[in-house]
């Protein structure tokens, strides 16, 4: 019975989206994106950082087979989300724009690989902290006022969807490998620290006019191929300790977000669950149309990401559509499509 009602809801949602998109009208005026490498569309390209992906084989299944700085073989879940919302282009990487005028009318992407809620994570990798991403967004608002006029800019800002995806780098690229953190704080205490930073970020984004915010949960950190290789004690199974840390963080994220929504008037703050859909793909790949979930497509598939995933990486798969993961940390385009469709369902409050 539950399956039928879910099916009916999906049908309604699809019709709703198709009807609006056929009219040539996106469901919202703009999409603004903040966060880490899961949503970075190329902001790290010109930074002095090792966390880059603007070279082959990244982007080999993207438009024109060109690497753009997306940590994927093709589209990100955020790109599919833009399509689902009816946009014909993707929010551009803010730092890559030669001209920042009319290009910003449908939104922009401020995300930076290796960034997180915890500012020191971004500093470790010379990435753009969330605090700095907000500064870029302030600049963007001023440009919008100049291009569209104050009144139009104001309605773009209040009607836009703001997508936030962070937290994974804080754990995997900082806490778990940093004795200055893991010897001082339990994972639970570190989650509390991240929640304080998350709260301030949402309050600041709200103060700048955001009223429809979607924030993704942590994925099953213990199922990322590189995490199994690094922390799995020679097993090929997901690492329970890391997954439990992610679930604990996600519980806090839900509670904190509910409190923020009560505190800030006219705010719709939707928590978008990435954990369960990705966990399903990893634990039941064949049921979801995938063949390989332990190894990523790039190189050996056990550890490579960023500069270690390059055109000379030996063993890179020929067809990434069968793989849940593209590199050691990031889903493939095929997996991102599945995740984006789930995001649309859990984010329905942002467009209804």
UniProtKB/TrEMBL annotation:
| EC identifiers of the protein | 3.1.1.3
* Name this protein carries in UniProt: GDSL-like lipase/acylhydrolase
Identify the enzyme class.
hydrolase
The region annotated as signal peptide is 1-24
A GO BP entry: lipid metabolic process
Is Hydrolase one of the keywords UniProt gives this record? yes
Which InterPro entries did the record assign? GDSL, GDSL_lipolytic_enzyme, Lipase_GDSL_AS, SGNH_hydro_sf, SGNH_plant_lipase-like
Q: Any idea which UniProt keywords this protein has? A: Hydrolase, Signal
The molecular function GO annotations come to: triacylglycerol lipase activity
| Gene3D superfamilies to which the protein is assigned, alphabetical | SGNH hydrolase
């Amino acid at each position: 019975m539950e399956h039928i009602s879910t099916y009916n809801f999906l049908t309604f949602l699809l019709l709703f989206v198709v009807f609006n998109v056929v009219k040539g009208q996106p469901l919202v005026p703009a999409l603004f994106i903040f966060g880490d490498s899961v949503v970075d569309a190329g902001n790290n390209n010109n930074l002095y950082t090792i966390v880059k992906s603007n070279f082959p084989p990244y982007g080999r299944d993207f438009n024109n087979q060109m690497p753009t700085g997306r940590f994927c073989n093709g589209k990100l879940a955020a790109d599919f989300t833009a399509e689902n919302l009816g946009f014909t282009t993707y929010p551009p990487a803010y730092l890559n724009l030669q001209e920042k005028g009319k290009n910003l009318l449908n939104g922009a992407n401020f995300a930076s690989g290796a960034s997180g809620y915890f500012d020191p994570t971004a500093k470790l990798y010379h990435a753009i902290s969330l605090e700095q991403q907000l500064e870029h967004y302030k600049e963007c608002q001023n440009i919008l006022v100049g291009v569209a006029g104050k009144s139009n800019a104001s309605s773009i800002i209040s009607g836009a969807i703001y997508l936030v995806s962070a937290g994974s780098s804080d754990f995997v690229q900082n806490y778990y490998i940093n004795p200055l953190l893991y010897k001082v704080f339990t994972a639970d205490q570190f989650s509390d620290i991240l929640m304080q930073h998350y709260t301030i970020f949402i309050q600041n984004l709200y103060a700048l006019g955001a009223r429809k915010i979607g924030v993704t949960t942590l994925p099953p950190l213990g199922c990322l191929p590189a995490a199994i290789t690094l922390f799995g004690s020679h097993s090929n199974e997901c690492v329970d300790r890391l997954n439990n840390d992610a679930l604990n963080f996600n519980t806090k994220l839900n509670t904190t977000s509910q409190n923020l929504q009560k505190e800030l008037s006219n705010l719709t703050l939707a928590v978008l669950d990435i954990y369960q859909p990705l966990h399903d793909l990893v634990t039941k790949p064949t049921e979801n149309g995938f063949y390989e979930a332990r190894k990523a497509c790039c190189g050996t598939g056990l550890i490579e990401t960023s500069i270690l995933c390059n055109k000379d990486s030996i063993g890179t798969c020929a067809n990434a559509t069968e793989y849940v993961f593209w590199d050691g940390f990031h889903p493939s385009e095929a997996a991102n499509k599945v995740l984006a469709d789930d995001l649309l369902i859990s984010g329905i409050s942002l467009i209804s």
